[in-house]
Amino acid sequence: MTTEETGTGVATATRESKPAPDFDAIGIGAGFAGLALIHYLRKEGLSIRVFDRAPDIGGTWSWNCYPGAATDSESYYYCLTFSKDLLQKWSWTKRYPGFEETQAYMRFVADECDMWPHIQLDTEIVKAEYLGELGYWRVTTDADETYTCRFLISGMGMISEPMIPKIEGLDRFEGPIFHSSRWPRGLDYAGKKIAVIGSGSTTVQLVPVLAEKAASVTVFQRTPNYILPAMQRPMTSEWEREIKENYDEIVEKCRNHAFGMAFDSPTGRTVADTPADEVQRVFEENWTGSFRWVFETFDDLLTNPEANRLASEFITRKMKEQVEDPEIADLVAPNVDDYPLFAKRPPLDHGYLSSLNRDNVTLVDIKEREPLQEITETGLRTTRKDYECDIIVLATGFKAYTGALEAFPIYGSNGQTLREKWERSSDSIMGVCVAGFPNLFIVTGPQAPFANLPTSIEQNVIWITRCLQKMQHEGYNVFKPRIEAEREWTAHTAEIHNQTLMAHGDEVNSWMMGANRDDKAPRVLIYFGGADAYYDKLDQSADEGFPELEFVKLNA
Ligand code: NAP
Q1: Residue minimizing CA distance to atom 17 of ligand 1
Q2: Which of 78, 158, 159, 525 to mutate to test the pocket of ligand 1 (most atoms within 8 A of CB)?
Q3: For residue 457, how many C-alpha atoms fall within 13 Å in the half-sphere facing its CB?
Q4: Cis peptide before 266, with omega less than 30 degrees from 0?
Q5: pLDDT (tens digit, 9 = 90+) per residue, 306-319?
Q6: Strand 348-349 to strand 193-197: parallel, antiparallel, or no bridges (unpaired)?
Q7: If DSSP states are collapsed to H, E and C, what string results for 304-337?
């Protein structure tokens, strides 16, 4: 072990009385969270190693390498902000970067900040156990190696564990069949017949790109989505100059926005207080791409059913205008009576709707017209017919927020796993800590907000760092999340959730409520009180000395 790995921080407090752990902190996941952890913890003199099972850094953008994969946040604020120098040095090429560009950006950060010595790739963590008598965590890798640390920190991502549907015959298909987030790099799909199961954000990005080379693309759709336009555009030198001259303000805007985005909202306008023709004018004027449309038009779209309905009608009208066949247009656009906008997370369109006009793209209604029955050796069988294909893509979504933390056993202080703890309700303290799991931090865990992820990740990591600073300065080596604080946060999150239209998510299998999972009941997974309010709460908690945690001096 190197001196650097041993570290100098919290690890020194009780080193004489018991064996030193291998690291002060172990991070799991080398995406934005892993990089942020390395930056902030290393500055405190703490030793950290970040493990990732992938062969490269990038997290989501390492796994989601399907054709067309791109961010839905705009590039210039979908990044880490701890270094003004890096913000100035890096140049984005477009409004929404593809996965390659975002991954290249992360490599740039790792290179510039000399982070590689702290990263161990191709290493899956398969077990984590809290060792109560030592106040350490021990992790076991897929190579059966073990490492100990004082603090275990999950940076595994909130949308990373694939949801593989239980469809009869899944093992029977003789060609390539895989989840969208496990796209085989270099797969030659030119001239092939491709079936895509699912019609969420992934499919919406994937299909127009596949359709350019594939012989055919057939999309098997259950629930239609409200699809907003992305309106991709290149980064011009004037735009880049304007961004770089105003980066402080952009970073501040994200920190103070309800969804962590550099948006101009709240607008101070509501549909309820606006004449009908003016509502339509504002909707039209703001139809310029991205989720901006939802947040920069009116402030009551996600809380006022009537406002939401007008927005939903506007979107479905715009969607249908792009689809030539009226039957397909009716099929791809939701019926506004069925569910409100944002009960499911809307995809951004980079050409999906217009691709439905191509001769080689087919949309199949597996909800009502012809439910999917099974997968056969050569394709898919619905109640009406057989669809032969060469490749099947399961664009069936993720076990959001908790899936990665439940995929392998993480044992807390009483031997219970996180999976067991979250059987009925996925409780946490601000998405960062869980009662019964001392010295465990989660970056953007359940009951954290759904927001521009790099913003939330950095705010979480700042809170974690401040907590470790306190422990270091005051000689504590263990923190125990308080159950009362967890109950309070869980109740608060549920109360707010139920005031929003997102509470309808369980009616339409939304991953935002875990309602897409077949192994668990739907639940409240997201804090919708505003990311800005949530970041304020994190700051307040740190300012007040982390009242949600009990600090202990073990062996003192
Ligand atoms: P998703 O939105 O959860 O969509 C999954 C799709 O699979 C749905 O259409 C679902 O139908 C369908 N499905 C699931 N099980 C099925 C079954 N047994 N039979 C038939 N259909 C089934 O998943 P996603 O498209 O991968 O997107 C998930 C989230 O990842 C997004 O909302 C977004 O937050 C994130 N994402 C982000 C980006 C980006 O930022 N650029 C890109 C892609 C994804 P039902 O709706 O009827 O359940």
Answers
A1: 165
A2: 159
A3: 28
A4: yes
A5: 999 999 999 999 99
A6: unpaired
A7: CHHHHHHHHHHHHHHHHHCCCCHHHHHHHCCCCC
Q: Could you report the per-residue pLDDT of 274-296, keeping only the tens digit for each? A: 999 999 999 999 999 999 999 99
DSSP secondary structure code for residue 441 in this structure: E
Residue type, position 151, single letter: F
Contact predicate 440/433, CB 8 Å: yes
Which of 261, 396, 456 to mutate to test ligand 1, by most ligand atoms within 8 A of the CB atom? Answer: 396
* SS3 per-residue string spanning 190-241: CCCEEEEECCCHHHHHHHHHHHHHCCEEEEEECCCCCCEECCCCECCHHHHH
Residues 6+ apart with CB under 8 A from 418: 402, 405, 406, 410, 412, 434, 437
DSSP letter, residue 144: S
pLDDT value of position 336:
98
Dihedral through CA 240, CA 242, CA 247, CA 252, nearest 10? Answer: -130
The Cα 344–Cα 330 span in angstroms is 18
Closest residue by Cα to atom 3, ligand 1, is 397
Below-70 pLDDT ranges, the chain: 1-17, 556
Q: Using CA atoms in the order 250, 254, 257, 261, what is the torsion angle rounded to 10 degrees? A: 100
